[in-house]
Amino acid sequence: MKYTGPKAKLSRSLGIALTPKAARVMERRPNPPGQHGVAQRGRPRRVSDYKRQLVEKQRLRAQYNIHERQMRNYFRKAAQRKGNTPDNLIHALESRLDAVVLRGGLAPTIYAARQLVSHGHILVNGKRVTYPAYVIHPNDVVSVKPSSRQIPVVVEAVDGAAPPPYLELDKDEVAVTLRYLPPREEVPIICDLSQVVEFYSR
């Protein structure tokens, strides 16, 4: 199932800020939640390989806000394709419509991006799409429909947008074009993909 509940608590647990509010909370309380999150004196506990892999997998899932079954399917397809499995996995995840909406600067968080898509505010090549996992291909244009361009969350996101190189943002048209499938180093996620591959390859 997808992660639910307070995003700040989840962010502290995974060590990554999933929302602007979570980032502010983590500045004050950077340790994980709960009594075991407070730093203990003495020698730190050894983290098993499985735990390290599990945490990286959870980080990746949380940053795309997807189900465990979806992530397994993405990994299975990435492993079956020719080429590097981590690159294939990133290509599949970054091709999701909600990910393009987020990375392109049309929404401030993956949660807002998913909501904009599911509520019918997003167009792909001029046609409305309400499926967050819809696959975007190079040269596809993702835009906010004209009647929705003044939604405060959209206006604020576009004003402060700084898309990665593989996305081209047209602020006047409130539209983003996927220029190419990105290499890992251009994707702004916090995750050790090799650990994720090892987790799902067990």
User: Any idea what the radius of gyration is?
Assistant: 18 Å
Shape by Cα distribution: globular
Mean pLDDT: 88
| SSE order | HHHHHHHEEEHEEH
Core attributes:
202 residues; 5-stranded antiparallel beta sheet; single chain; 9 helices; alpha+beta
Task: Give an overview of the whole structure.
- The chain is α+β, with helices and mostly antiparallel strands.
- Helix content is 44%, strand content 8%.
- The protein is built from nine helices and five strands; from the N terminus they run αααααααβββαββα.
- Strands 2-1-3-5-4 form a five-stranded antiparallel β-sheet.
- Helix 3 crosses helix 9 (193-200), helix 4 (68-80) packs across helix 5 (85-94) and helix 6 packs across helix 7.
- The radius of gyration is 18 Å and the shape is globular.
- The two termini are 21 Å apart.
- The relative contact order is 0.14.
